[in-house]
Design brief:
By secondary structure, this protein is α/β, with parallel strands linked by helices. It is about 50% helix and about 15% strand. The protein has a six-stranded mixed beta sheet, sandwiched between helices.
């Protein structure tokens, strides 16, 4: 799982930094980071970010803000050209916990904003979604390789954040679905993020259908780099990081080059964020009532899951 002592000694001096030093530096720079947990593995120069929403497994405003703060802190601390050889973080890896990876966007937050007609709050949610995706896709401006592993069902716009990474894998029991079309709205960043990986037509089919795809089907459609056996997602990431360390500079340069070739993601996501905000504020009372029912269904589903084995929860859906 970890490199040998000899391999570590051959690595740059930054790789030998204590994990607490790296995490403390990021926390000092970033400030309060709710709904996330950080871990650092010096042998493979990998910072793990565990996504841990507090009330529901959704992408809350607080979670999005924490993720952008972590990304920005790494860039601020070690992103200067003269810092590259001393940067302790070569790989930024995202993972989740629990019977779901995500239920998607924060419907309770959306409903609160709609009740108050709060365009500014919806726009901020869209801005943070876009900012995190741009940083992931660029590898924090060419500093790191970004990776994610999906261990369970991923629903809606919460898929986009891990898919914006340079590399995304899933365990074989995971599944992916964008049900938003059935509720008269759409995920903020999905059109741009999915199109870059799957092609526009495949992305359109997935978003328009609202149908669930197995990890294998999502892989075959171009949505994943690999499907791995149950319980091995993190081990796959560790091996990828270990194998990639000797060619890290080339990999980050290639990922950056392909990212630039795909177009101006930041500009595209800014426009998508505006369209999404307008779409949300135009929802009819009946569409809002439908969102309320979905949020209530989530609450009931999660309440039942706490009384059942976790394996049962994996089979539950919206």
């Amino acid at each position: 799982m970890f490199q040998s002592v000899a391999s570590v000694m051959d690595a740059p001096p930054a790789a030998l930094l204590d994990s607490c030093e790296v995490i403390d530096a990021i926390r000092r720079r970033a400030g309060f980071l709710p709904e996330t947990q950080l871990a650092y593995e010096p042998a493979i120069q990998t910072l793990w970010v565990t996504i841990r929403p507090e009330l529901k497994p959704v992408f809350t405003l607080q979670l999005l803000d924490s993720l952008v703060k972590i990304q920005s802190a790494i860039v601020a601390l070690w992103g200067a050209p003269d810092q590259y050889h001393r940067a302790p973080v070569r790989f930024l890896a995202f993972r989740g916990r629990g019977p779901f990876f995500t239920l998607g966007g924060d419907l309770d937050f959306y409903l609160d904003c709609l009740a108050k007609n709060d365009r500014a709050a919806l726009a901020e949610y869209a801005r943070l979604s876009a900012a995190g995706a741009v940083l992931n896709a660029s590898g924090l401006n060419g500093l790191v390789v970004t990776l994610s592993t999906i261990h369970a069902k991923a629903i809606g716009g919460g898929i986009d954040a891990p898919r914006s990474c340079n590399v995304m894998i899933a365990e074989e029991q995971a599944s992916f679905v964008y049900p938003e079309i059935k509720f008269n709205h759409f995920p903020i960043t999905a059109v741009a993020i999915l199109s870059r990986r799957m092609g526009a037509r495949a992305a359109e089919r997935m978003l328009m259908s609202g149908e669930e795809m197995s990890a294998q089907a999502f892989f075959e459609a171009g949505g994943l780099e690999a499907v791995v056996p149950t319980g091995t997602g993190e081990a796959w990431i560790r091996k990828y990081a270990q194998d990639s360390l000797p060619m890290h500079a080339a990999k980050t340069a290639l990922f950056s080059a392909f990212n630039r070739r795909a177009g101006d993601l930041q500009q595209e996501l800014q426009e998508l964020g505006r369209i999404w905000t307008d779409c949300m504020l135009r929802l009819t009372p009946s569409a809002i009532s439908k969102l309320q029912r979905i949020a209530q269904t989530q609450d009931r589903m999660l309440a039942r899951m706490y009384q059942r084995p976790a394996a049962d929860g994996l089979r539950l859906g919206l």
